[in-house]
Write a structure and sequence with these properties.
This protein is α+β, with helices and mostly antiparallel strands and 335 residues long. The protein has 7 helices and 14 strands. The longest helix is centred in the middle third of the chain and has 20 residues. The two termini are 28 Å apart.
Protein backbone atom coordinates (compact mmCIF):
# COMPACT_ATOMS: atom_id res chain seq x y z
CA UNK A 1 0.00 0.00 0.00
CA UNK A 2 1.29 3.44 -0.93
CA UNK A 3 0.58 5.04 2.42
CA UNK A 4 2.70 2.37 4.13
CA UNK A 5 5.77 2.73 1.99
CA UNK A 6 5.62 6.53 1.90
CA UNK A 7 5.71 6.89 5.69
CA UNK A 8 8.89 8.76 6.66
CA UNK A 9 11.08 7.61 9.53
CA UNK A 10 12.59 10.02 12.04
CA UNK A 11 16.19 11.19 11.63
CA UNK A 12 18.78 8.72 12.88
CA UNK A 13 20.02 11.10 15.58
CA UNK A 14 16.60 10.97 17.23
CA UNK A 15 16.62 7.19 17.61
CA UNK A 16 17.41 5.61 20.96
CA UNK A 17 18.43 2.08 21.85
CA UNK A 18 16.43 -0.26 24.05
CA UNK A 19 17.06 -3.70 25.49
CA UNK A 20 17.42 -6.78 23.33
CA UNK A 21 14.50 -9.07 22.58
CA UNK A 22 15.31 -12.76 21.99
CA UNK A 23 13.50 -13.58 18.70
CA UNK A 24 15.03 -15.49 15.76
CA UNK A 25 16.76 -12.66 13.92
CA UNK A 26 17.95 -9.09 14.47
CA UNK A 27 15.03 -6.82 15.33
CA UNK A 28 14.90 -3.11 14.64
CA UNK A 29 12.25 -1.34 16.64
CA UNK A 30 10.25 1.82 16.69
CA UNK A 31 11.41 5.16 15.50
CA UNK A 32 10.58 8.21 17.62
CA UNK A 33 7.73 10.09 15.98
CA UNK A 34 4.00 10.63 15.88
CA UNK A 35 3.09 6.95 15.59
CA UNK A 36 5.93 5.19 17.39
CA UNK A 37 8.03 5.25 20.52
CA UNK A 38 11.81 5.07 20.55
CA UNK A 39 14.10 2.10 20.57
CA UNK A 40 16.11 -0.25 18.41
CA UNK A 41 15.76 -3.80 19.66
CA UNK A 42 18.43 -6.36 18.92
CA UNK A 43 17.82 -10.09 19.00
CA UNK A 44 20.06 -12.50 20.89
CA UNK A 45 17.96 -15.64 21.33
CA UNK A 46 15.34 -17.64 19.48
CA UNK A 47 11.76 -18.80 19.52
CA UNK A 48 11.32 -22.17 21.12
CA UNK A 49 9.03 -24.19 18.83
CA UNK A 50 11.35 -27.14 19.31
CA UNK A 51 11.97 -29.01 22.52
CA UNK A 52 15.19 -30.91 21.97
CA UNK A 53 14.95 -32.62 25.36
CA UNK A 54 11.48 -34.01 24.74
CA UNK A 55 12.27 -35.18 21.21
CA UNK A 56 9.83 -36.44 18.58
CA UNK A 57 6.58 -38.29 19.12
CA UNK A 58 6.89 -42.04 18.43
CA UNK A 59 4.11 -43.80 16.52
CA UNK A 60 2.54 -46.92 17.98
CA UNK A 61 2.51 -49.00 14.81
CA UNK A 62 4.95 -49.20 11.93
CA UNK A 63 2.42 -50.57 9.43
CA UNK A 64 1.10 -47.25 8.12
CA UNK A 65 4.56 -45.76 8.35
CA UNK A 66 6.15 -48.62 6.38
CA UNK A 67 3.74 -48.02 3.49
CA UNK A 68 4.43 -44.29 3.43
CA UNK A 69 6.31 -43.05 0.40
CA UNK A 70 7.96 -39.62 -0.02
CA UNK A 71 5.19 -37.04 -0.38
CA UNK A 72 2.70 -38.96 1.80
CA UNK A 73 0.98 -36.80 4.42
CA UNK A 74 0.01 -38.41 7.73
CA UNK A 75 -2.28 -37.34 10.50
CA UNK A 76 -3.43 -38.69 13.86
CA UNK A 77 -5.40 -37.71 16.93
CA UNK A 78 -3.84 -37.48 20.37
CA UNK A 79 -3.32 -41.24 20.19
CA UNK A 80 -0.69 -42.01 17.51
CA UNK A 81 -2.32 -45.42 16.87
CA UNK A 82 -4.91 -43.48 14.83
CA UNK A 83 -2.24 -42.49 12.28
CA UNK A 84 -3.53 -42.54 8.70
CA UNK A 85 -2.53 -41.12 5.32
CA UNK A 86 -4.54 -38.15 4.02
CA UNK A 87 -4.51 -35.82 1.04
CA UNK A 88 -1.86 -33.18 1.72
CA UNK A 89 -4.42 -30.45 1.02
CA UNK A 90 -6.26 -31.64 4.13
CA UNK A 91 -5.11 -31.05 7.71
CA UNK A 92 -2.14 -33.26 8.57
CA UNK A 93 0.69 -33.46 11.08
CA UNK A 94 3.58 -34.94 9.11
CA UNK A 95 4.81 -34.90 5.51
CA UNK A 96 7.03 -37.87 4.67
CA UNK A 97 10.32 -36.95 2.98
CA UNK A 98 11.85 -40.41 2.82
CA UNK A 99 13.63 -43.21 4.64
CA UNK A 100 16.93 -42.47 6.40
CA UNK A 101 20.07 -44.06 5.00
CA UNK A 102 20.44 -46.42 7.93
CA UNK A 103 18.40 -47.54 10.91
CA UNK A 104 19.20 -49.02 14.28
CA UNK A 105 20.13 -52.75 14.34
CA UNK A 106 17.58 -55.49 14.98
CA UNK A 107 18.90 -56.13 18.48
CA UNK A 108 18.86 -52.45 19.47
CA UNK A 109 16.73 -51.67 22.53
CA UNK A 110 13.71 -49.44 22.15
CA UNK A 111 15.26 -45.96 21.73
CA UNK A 112 14.63 -43.10 24.05
CA UNK A 113 13.21 -39.90 22.60
CA UNK A 114 16.59 -38.20 22.99
CA UNK A 115 18.20 -41.05 21.03
CA UNK A 116 15.65 -40.64 18.23
CA UNK A 117 16.27 -36.88 18.30
CA UNK A 118 19.97 -37.54 17.76
CA UNK A 119 19.17 -39.88 14.86
CA UNK A 120 16.88 -37.21 13.40
CA UNK A 121 19.54 -34.51 13.51
CA UNK A 122 22.14 -36.82 11.97
CA UNK A 123 20.15 -38.65 9.30
CA UNK A 124 17.18 -36.53 8.25
CA UNK A 125 18.52 -33.17 6.96
CA UNK A 126 19.93 -34.64 3.70
CA UNK A 127 16.74 -36.67 3.17
CA UNK A 128 14.57 -33.56 3.55
CA UNK A 129 16.87 -31.45 1.35
CA UNK A 130 16.76 -34.04 -1.43
CA UNK A 131 12.98 -34.32 -1.15
CA UNK A 132 12.35 -30.56 -1.29
CA UNK A 133 15.08 -29.82 -3.81
CA UNK A 134 16.36 -27.15 -1.43
CA UNK A 135 17.19 -26.70 2.24
CA UNK A 136 14.47 -26.21 4.80
CA UNK A 137 14.43 -22.70 6.23
CA UNK A 138 16.46 -23.11 9.48
CA UNK A 139 14.46 -20.27 11.07
CA UNK A 140 11.09 -21.08 9.53
CA UNK A 141 7.92 -22.61 10.88
CA UNK A 142 8.61 -26.10 9.51
CA UNK A 143 10.91 -28.57 11.25
CA UNK A 144 12.58 -31.83 10.37
CA UNK A 145 11.39 -34.80 12.40
CA UNK A 146 11.79 -38.57 12.54
CA UNK A 147 8.98 -41.05 13.16
CA UNK A 148 9.60 -44.66 14.19
CA UNK A 149 7.54 -47.69 15.09
CA UNK A 150 6.23 -47.65 18.66
CA UNK A 151 7.54 -49.84 21.46
CA UNK A 152 5.35 -52.92 20.82
CA UNK A 153 6.13 -52.93 17.11
CA UNK A 154 9.82 -52.29 17.87
CA UNK A 155 10.00 -55.24 20.25
CA UNK A 156 8.49 -57.36 17.48
CA UNK A 157 11.38 -56.38 15.20
CA UNK A 158 9.88 -53.43 13.32
CA UNK A 159 12.63 -50.86 12.62
CA UNK A 160 10.63 -48.63 10.28
CA UNK A 161 11.77 -45.00 10.27
CA UNK A 162 10.64 -42.07 8.17
CA UNK A 163 12.16 -38.59 7.98
CA UNK A 164 9.70 -35.81 7.34
CA UNK A 165 8.53 -32.28 7.96
CA UNK A 166 6.09 -30.89 10.49
CA UNK A 167 5.06 -27.84 12.49
CA UNK A 168 5.43 -28.26 16.25
CA UNK A 169 4.43 -26.32 19.35
CA UNK A 170 6.69 -25.35 22.23
CA UNK A 171 6.36 -28.83 23.75
CA UNK A 172 7.41 -30.62 20.56
CA UNK A 173 3.91 -31.81 19.67
CA UNK A 174 3.05 -31.93 15.96
CA UNK A 175 0.46 -29.35 14.91
CA UNK A 176 -1.95 -29.54 11.99
CA UNK A 177 -1.09 -27.83 8.72
CA UNK A 178 -2.38 -27.92 5.13
CA UNK A 179 -0.57 -28.17 1.81
CA UNK A 180 2.85 -29.48 0.84
CA UNK A 181 5.83 -27.62 2.24
CA UNK A 182 7.44 -27.03 -1.16
CA UNK A 183 4.45 -24.91 -2.21
CA UNK A 184 4.41 -22.75 0.93
CA UNK A 185 6.15 -19.72 2.34
CA UNK A 186 8.18 -21.24 5.16
CA UNK A 187 8.27 -18.00 7.17
CA UNK A 188 7.46 -18.16 10.88
CA UNK A 189 4.44 -15.85 10.95
CA UNK A 190 1.02 -15.59 12.60
CA UNK A 191 -2.08 -13.47 11.84
CA UNK A 192 -2.34 -9.97 13.38
CA UNK A 193 -3.70 -10.12 16.91
CA UNK A 194 -1.99 -13.45 17.67
CA UNK A 195 -0.21 -13.57 21.00
CA UNK A 196 2.89 -15.73 21.37
CA UNK A 197 3.53 -17.48 24.68
CA UNK A 198 6.48 -17.13 27.00
CA UNK A 199 8.62 -20.06 28.15
CA UNK A 200 10.09 -20.52 31.62
CA UNK A 201 13.34 -19.21 30.16
CA UNK A 202 11.71 -16.00 29.01
CA UNK A 203 11.64 -16.82 25.30
CA UNK A 204 8.70 -16.89 22.86
CA UNK A 205 7.03 -20.23 22.17
CA UNK A 206 3.84 -20.51 20.11
CA UNK A 207 0.32 -19.04 19.83
CA UNK A 208 -1.56 -18.62 23.09
CA UNK A 209 -4.63 -16.76 24.37
CA UNK A 210 -3.80 -13.09 24.90
CA UNK A 211 -5.38 -13.23 28.36
CA UNK A 212 -2.48 -15.45 29.45
CA UNK A 213 1.07 -14.16 30.03
CA UNK A 214 2.82 -13.89 26.69
CA UNK A 215 5.96 -12.54 25.06
CA UNK A 216 4.60 -10.60 22.10
CA UNK A 217 1.54 -9.75 20.02
CA UNK A 218 1.59 -9.64 16.23
CA UNK A 219 0.32 -6.44 14.58
CA UNK A 220 1.03 -7.18 10.91
CA UNK A 221 2.47 -9.73 8.48
CA UNK A 222 4.67 -8.13 5.81
CA UNK A 223 5.36 -9.81 2.47
CA UNK A 224 8.81 -8.56 1.52
CA UNK A 225 8.16 -9.34 -2.14
CA UNK A 226 6.21 -6.09 -2.27
CA UNK A 227 9.43 -4.15 -1.78
CA UNK A 228 11.96 -6.70 -3.04
CA UNK A 229 10.45 -8.54 -6.04
CA UNK A 230 13.82 -9.77 -7.28
CA UNK A 231 15.06 -13.22 -6.31
CA UNK A 232 18.23 -11.82 -4.74
CA UNK A 233 18.32 -11.50 -0.95
CA UNK A 234 17.84 -7.96 0.41
CA UNK A 235 20.41 -7.16 3.08
CA UNK A 236 19.29 -6.84 6.69
CA UNK A 237 19.82 -3.09 6.49
CA UNK A 238 17.62 -2.87 3.39
CA UNK A 239 14.93 -4.89 5.16
CA UNK A 240 15.18 -2.78 8.30
CA UNK A 241 14.95 0.47 6.35
CA UNK A 242 11.78 -0.76 4.66
CA UNK A 243 10.23 -2.24 7.82
CA UNK A 244 11.10 0.94 9.73
CA UNK A 245 8.67 2.73 7.43
CA UNK A 246 5.92 0.18 7.04
CA UNK A 247 5.63 -1.38 10.53
CA UNK A 248 4.71 1.88 12.35
CA UNK A 249 1.96 2.70 9.84
CA UNK A 250 0.62 -0.86 9.76
CA UNK A 251 0.60 -0.96 13.57
CA UNK A 252 -1.20 2.38 13.75
CA UNK A 253 -3.82 0.93 11.43
CA UNK A 254 -4.06 -2.18 13.61
CA UNK A 255 -4.67 -0.04 16.71
CA UNK A 256 -7.06 2.20 14.81
CA UNK A 257 -5.52 5.15 16.60
CA UNK A 258 -2.51 7.39 16.10
CA UNK A 259 -1.81 7.20 19.84
CA UNK A 260 -2.43 3.49 20.34
CA UNK A 261 1.20 2.39 20.39
CA UNK A 262 2.35 5.11 22.78
CA UNK A 263 -0.46 4.55 25.26
CA UNK A 264 0.17 0.79 25.27
CA UNK A 265 3.62 1.31 26.78
CA UNK A 266 4.97 -1.48 24.55
CA UNK A 267 7.81 -1.51 22.06
CA UNK A 268 7.22 -2.06 18.35
CA UNK A 269 9.67 -4.43 16.65
CA UNK A 270 10.03 -6.69 13.63
CA UNK A 271 12.19 -9.55 12.42
CA UNK A 272 14.27 -9.80 9.26
CA UNK A 273 15.05 -12.77 7.02
CA UNK A 274 18.54 -14.22 6.85
CA UNK A 275 20.05 -15.19 3.51
CA UNK A 276 19.52 -18.96 4.18
CA UNK A 277 15.85 -18.27 4.98
CA UNK A 278 15.43 -16.23 1.80
CA UNK A 279 17.14 -18.91 -0.29
CA UNK A 280 14.77 -21.51 1.18
CA UNK A 281 11.83 -19.47 -0.10
CA UNK A 282 10.71 -17.53 2.99
CA UNK A 283 9.44 -14.04 2.16
CA UNK A 284 7.31 -12.86 5.10
CA UNK A 285 8.11 -11.22 8.44
CA UNK A 286 6.05 -9.89 11.32
CA UNK A 287 5.66 -6.56 13.06
CA UNK A 288 4.94 -7.12 16.75
CA UNK A 289 4.64 -5.55 20.18
CA UNK A 290 6.77 -6.66 23.12
CA UNK A 291 8.60 -5.47 26.21
CA UNK A 292 12.07 -6.27 27.51
CA UNK A 293 14.18 -5.04 30.41
CA UNK A 294 17.46 -6.69 29.44
CA UNK A 295 19.29 -8.34 26.56
CA UNK A 296 18.13 -11.88 27.31
CA UNK A 297 14.46 -12.25 28.13
CA UNK A 298 11.03 -10.85 27.36
CA UNK A 299 8.87 -9.19 29.99
CA UNK A 300 5.53 -11.02 30.38
CA UNK A 301 2.49 -9.24 28.96
CA UNK A 302 -1.07 -10.08 29.98
CA UNK A 303 -3.99 -8.99 27.82
CA UNK A 304 -4.03 -7.67 24.29
CA UNK A 305 -2.27 -4.38 23.61
CA UNK A 306 -5.74 -3.10 22.63
CA UNK A 307 -7.41 -4.13 25.89
CA UNK A 308 -7.99 -1.75 28.83
CA UNK A 309 -6.74 -4.48 31.20
CA UNK A 310 -3.27 -4.70 29.63
CA UNK A 311 -0.53 -5.52 32.15
CA UNK A 312 3.23 -5.42 31.56
CA UNK A 313 5.13 -7.50 34.10
CA UNK A 314 1.98 -7.49 36.23
CA UNK A 315 1.60 -3.70 36.22
CA UNK A 316 -0.47 -1.22 34.18
CA UNK A 317 1.51 0.28 31.31
CA UNK A 318 3.26 3.61 31.67
CA UNK A 319 3.12 5.79 28.58
CA UNK A 320 6.55 6.98 27.37
CA UNK A 321 7.08 10.71 26.98
CA UNK A 322 9.01 12.69 24.42
CA UNK A 323 11.75 15.19 25.43
CA UNK A 324 10.24 18.16 27.24
CA UNK A 325 6.92 16.48 27.91
CA UNK A 326 5.54 15.89 31.39
CA UNK A 327 5.66 12.25 32.59
CA UNK A 328 2.37 10.43 32.12
CA UNK A 329 0.63 8.72 35.00
CA UNK A 330 0.17 4.92 34.79
CA UNK A 331 -2.85 3.90 32.76
CA UNK A 332 -5.57 2.31 34.87
CA UNK A 333 -8.66 2.55 32.72
CA UNK A 334 -9.88 2.18 29.17
CA UNK A 335 -7.86 3.99 26.54
Amino acid sequence: MADDTDTQSAPAEKRSRAGALPVRAVLAAVIVGAVAIGGVLFLTGAFEPKNEEKGPRLVASGTVLARSKPGTCLTWDKDPTTMAPVDCLESHRFEVAGEPARTLPENAPYPTESAIAAQRDQLCPPVVTEYLGKRLDPMGRFQTNLLTAGQKAWEAGDRTMRCGIQVADGAGNALETKGKVVNQDQSLTWPPGTCIGLSDRGKPTGPIECTKPHALEVTSVIDLRQAFPDASWPTKQQQEDYLGRICPSRTTGWFGSQDGLRTSGLQLAWNTLSQPSWTAGSRSVICFLASSKDTVTYTPITGSAKSPGLLIDGKPPVMPTFPGAKPAAPSTGPR
